[in-house]
Amino acid sequence: MSSHAPYPIGTSGRPWGESERAEWLSQQKIRRSYAADVLSVIETLRARFDVSEYGRLDYAPHNYPLFAIKSRDWRDELPIALVTGGVHGYETSGVHGALRFVGQHAADYAGRANLVVVPCVSPWAYERIHRWNAAALDPNRSFRENSPAQESVALMRLVAPIRDRVLVHIDLHETTDSDESEFRPALAARDGVAYEPGEIPDGFYLVDDSAHPQPAFQQAVIAAVAKVTHIAPADSQGEIIGSPVVAAGVIEYALNQLGLCAGITSAPYKTTTEVYPDSPRATPEQCNAAQVAAVCAAIDFALAHPAKASVGQ
């Protein structure tokens, strides 16, 4: 049985209070630039798409504008495809994959679908390469009424007017080695519970909605991504990150119950991607390309099977 050193902040068995959160916050340093990496790219897209500021994050002394990129040829009769990235700021390919999709493929859907792309939901965390926001909260467990996370509140407010009109929503994520080396131990320490080590899957996988699963849709995305990077196998228990594998590269979560971003609309087609950037078999380029392939496959399948929109809703 392996042993793990206690997390350096807090007291074992006791949830963090304000002093522990302040200590944690004091250790978070800016490691890359939201303005240089994300906002500069969004600026280049303004000539072809409608770009709107849908909110701001106020983490004094830092203030972050939040942007959505939308189809310029918006038509109310068309279905809506929602793409979100950077809900966890450290998951790099989610952000850059979303931006690459807009730059290279969004025009392909003109006259076929209205696109809403939010490439970086959590810019504070993007700059610090972290999972949480400045309040030590996980935005991807905070998409619910009376959410304490600014990032989640802003995105839900943006989506509210179209919530019941979205046909497909794909939320772009990564599973990294740092999940086990930092973020899950930090979560256990923050909540005052014992840290239970897990296994990081080597490869790409998807998270379907257990309340309204769409297996054919998920497999269409898996098939497209398999041409770009490898798909994660099940572990010895037939699971991926503790959940049963229901089909090749697919697990299921209760999206709404867990407050996950992929559950913020009534879309019949929804999924969360999980790329593994730390694999010796994958490069950053492959990770970005995998996210783009997943987005295109998701939208293509949904547009080809719109009748499903009335099933289970």
Automatic annotation (TrEMBL):
SUPFAM superfamilies: Zn-dependent exopeptidases. InterPro entries: AstE_AspA_cat, Peptidase_M14. Residues 30-313 form the Peptidase M14 domain. Its cofactor is Zn(2+). One of its GO terms (biological process) is proteolysis. One of its GO terms (molecular function) is metallocarboxypeptidase activity. Keywords: Hydrolase, Metal-binding, Zinc. Belongs to the peptidase M14 family. This is Peptidase. It comes from Rhodanobacter glycinis.
